[in-house]
Q: What sequence folds into this?
């Protein structure tokens, strides 16, 4: 639960950011017949274009060489999390070893803001900062709001130091194309994705093997399995607390709506909750509530949540939304004979449709006041190298890098392979607003699930609350 609280901060942070950035456009490369004069003109233009391209390539090469051979002192600041501080010491040492003439001044602290803010107020900034959106201090959000970030788009096209692949090619799809990394909706990347943790449905693989049951791929199959389990005295579903419906709700919303309407919903778009796609989400959650173990709401609090998690280990419920921290939380708990952790994305709304998994992730960035920006970008590119990834993984910090799951084993491989197996990564969340008295996104969208399970609130009550609160939140959007 402690790790959930840390990671949930990362998810909630996306509320401060705008809609996702748009994609790139292409051009038509076809040609038509031309006269000799046109051919001459075209040839001249082509020669000029070729010269410009050659000059551009020379400039790019020069810039790349300058970054690769940059020397001096680089100031790196990283918040210390459950992964510990040693991994940062080791990664910085590895960078120094491969970059002669470079010295890194490393600051790692659990209360990073308290350490670096006084110096930043006097105009002395770290060159690179690892601090995710969503921290209580709002440090990263402040830099975003004030437009005080360095554009890191060019880092994506940089070759990873010591390798032949670009940074952009190494990062898993979806981890850059979101409103957290692209906060201004201008197609530029200002925050780079680092350590991540997928969320989905946990279950007992041993039970499924013993019963000969298949993991449902659609919600229709989910209901069929729920009826089979009910006949054997097993509930289909439980959850630790209603707060765990954050990641669940976003993933389901994305499955049903697709990205465009999903982005509209995150900004409380007028009429969005009356669309058929939104109604599908409400219908699924209402039906899921009827399949939920009846004791769940009574234990869905910070003191008793593990009783709900224990339902999965005791084979009294089949599925539970959670993150990989649950494996550690329940490591010493008793379990049914043959129990084996299983993990899956949400079932698709329809056959062949998208199956989604929400992912919390941390970010690394550069303040506009950074003095050594070229070397800072080189360092950020190095963070995606196999050498750095191996060091981070040794402390349990996994990055969204292609092929990373091939190097994992045990529960970690099961957990982090979810996107390799076709799940779509969802990473955005409701947009932040000015404070609206009596309204929070959790109280509006997630907490009412308890009342749906107990029958104290109907789906219609919940939807009406969402519509009314969305009107107030939309009016208070931060622009």
A:
């Amino acid at each position: 639960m402690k790790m959930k609280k840390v990671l949930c901060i990362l998810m909630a942070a996306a509320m401060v950011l705008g809609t996702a950035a748009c994609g790139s456009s292409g051009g038509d490369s076809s040609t038509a017949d031309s006269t000799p004069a046109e051919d001459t003109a075209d040839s001249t233009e082509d020669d000029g274009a070729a010269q410009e391209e050659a000059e551009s390539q020379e400039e790019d090469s020069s810039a790349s060489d300058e970054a690769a051979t940059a020397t001096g002192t680089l100031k790196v600041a990283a918040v210390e999390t459950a992964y510990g501080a040693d991994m940062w010491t080791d990664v910085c040492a590895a960078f120094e070893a491969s970059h002669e003439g470079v010295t890194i001044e490393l600051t790692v602290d659990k209360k990073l803001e308290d350490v670096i803010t006084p110096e930043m107020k006097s105009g002395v900034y770290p060159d690179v900062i690892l601090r995710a959106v969503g921290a209580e201090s709002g440090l990263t959000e402040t830099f975003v709001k004030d437009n005080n970030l360095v554009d890191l788009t060019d880092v994506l096209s940089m070759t990873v130091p010591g390798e032949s692949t670009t940074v952009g090619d190494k990062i898993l799809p979806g981890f850059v194309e979101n409103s957290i990394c692209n906060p201004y909706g201008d197609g530029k990347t200002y925050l780079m994705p680092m350590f991540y943790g997928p969320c989905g449905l946990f279950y007992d693989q041993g039970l499924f093997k013993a019963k000969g049951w298949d993991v449902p791929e659609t919600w229709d199959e989910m209901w069929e399995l729920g009826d089979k389990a009910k006949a054997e005295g097993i509930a289909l579903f439980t959850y630790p607390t209603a707060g765990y419906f954050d990641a669940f709700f976003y993933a389901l919303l994305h499955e049903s709506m697709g990205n465009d309407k999903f982005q509209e919903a995150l900004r409380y778009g007028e009429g969005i909750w009356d669309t058929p796609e939104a109604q599908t989400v409400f219908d699924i959650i209402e039906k899921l509530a009827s399949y939920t173990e009846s004791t769940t709401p009574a234990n869905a609090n910070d003191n008793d949540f593990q009783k709900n998690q224990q339902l999965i280990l005791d084979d009294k419920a089949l599925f539970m939304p959670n993150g990989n921290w649950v494996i550690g939380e329940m490591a010493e708990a008793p379990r049914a004979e043959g129990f084996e952790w299983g993990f899956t994305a949400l079932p698709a709304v329809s056959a062949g449709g998208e199956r989604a998994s929400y992912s919390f992730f941390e970010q690394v960035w550069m303040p506009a006041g950074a003095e050594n920006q070229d070397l800072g970008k080189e360092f950020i590119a190095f963070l995606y190298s196999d050498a750095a990834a191996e060091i981070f993984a040794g402390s349990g910090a996994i990055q969204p890098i292609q092929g990373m799951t091939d190097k994992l084993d045990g529960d970690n491989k099961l957990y982090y392979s979810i996107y390799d197996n076709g799940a779509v990564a969802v990473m955005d969340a409701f947009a932040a607003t000015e404070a609206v008295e009596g309204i929070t996104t959790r109280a509006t969208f997630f907490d009412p699930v308890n009342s749906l399970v107990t029958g104290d609130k109907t789906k219609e009550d919940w939807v009406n609350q969402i519509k009314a609160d969305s009107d107030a939140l939309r009016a208070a959007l931060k622009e």
The beta strands are 72-79, 102-109, 128-130, 192-204, 235-237, 317-323, 341-344, 356-365, 424-426. The radius of gyration is 25 Å. The chain has two domains: 2-18+68-197+359-407, 199-358+430-475.
